[in-house]
Amino acid sequence: MINRFRLIGIMGVIGILVACQQPGTPKSQYDTSTSVKMDSATFAGKVDGKDVHLYELKNKNGVQAYFTNFGARIVGLWVPDKDGNLCDVVLGFTKAADYHNPKEPYFGTIVGPFGNRIAKGTFKLDGQTYNLPINNGVNTLHGGFKGVHFANWSVKSSDESSITFAYTLADKAEGFPGNIAMEVTYTLNDQNELMISYQAQSDKKTVINLTNHAYFNLNGEGSGTILDHQMQIFADRFTPVDSTLIPTGELKQVQGSAFDFTSVKTIGQDINADDQQLTYGKGYDHNFVLSKQTEGEWYKAAHVVGDKSGIVMDILTQEPGIQFYSGNFMNELVQLKNGTKDSFRTGFCLEPQHFPDSPNQPSFPSTELNPGQVYQTKSLYRFSVK
Ligand code: GLA
Q: Does the pTM of the predicted model rise above 0.70?
């Protein structure tokens, strides 16, 4: 097994892979997907006049992670299932250009400079008001129309196990103060852990909240809904929202409610409960306040099991919260890598982050970044089987 980073373009076609299956092995019973052919010629292209490529990291266990510089996105992640077959557990596209589409729901992308919502697209810093593009009802979501998800990042460095993307958002380009220089590093190790490290600096006081917006389906992309996945979130409280999904400021206990994921249950178990919060979110679309159960330098955030594949994903982070989104707005608007559509709740997102609307919520952990300060945070996605 070659364990090194490379531009896939150099290699040409990397082969025909079937979700949850190594080439030449029978399909797993749960696998309803069709063949996926990822190659640089199909994927690469020009977006906004700039070259967009496909990049790959591999480890000694055969885990393959694919990235692109457009949005510094994860575009594929092949991990072994309980039978040892490889399964692509993130949703995405075969072509770079397909990511440049307003109907594209932030697949695998970095969102920023402020991921999640800012109420009415406005906030104040040192008495000065900043106005942002309104792109989600009355609010700003994920940094506005372009944010950093429709940006062409550059590859700053790469080695056998990691790749670093860099992008500087110009002062006021999306309404945020400061030239904000961001770096995101993906590192894949031989323990089947994908780590995402974030760094940012600004020449003016600003706000920052970077995260990755990957949609996961641990039974494989395009293999049906995620409702039977088992999930645990290490959070005793969550941030209830108003009808526009802006936190009310309360940190509410999850105990006894549909939001109680403190022990393992299926995503679908309580998703249709009679709860105004679920009505507002059209399901789960909420930030959970991590209880800060530690594992080494990390906070435990979430534990998820694909009911059919046996694939386990544990998320650890340095962030205070995690947004759980159950794919409620997925509505067959785009076509995935394996030819299926992004049907309702066929993917879920778990986005480690600071709380939504923090710039307007003085009681939430601060998201302010001062000139001279270095913003640094990281999250870890560990894959195993059950
Ligand atoms: C985030 C939001 C959701 C939704 C998705 C993209 O996770 O919280 O409400 O907008 O992005 O569809």
A: yes
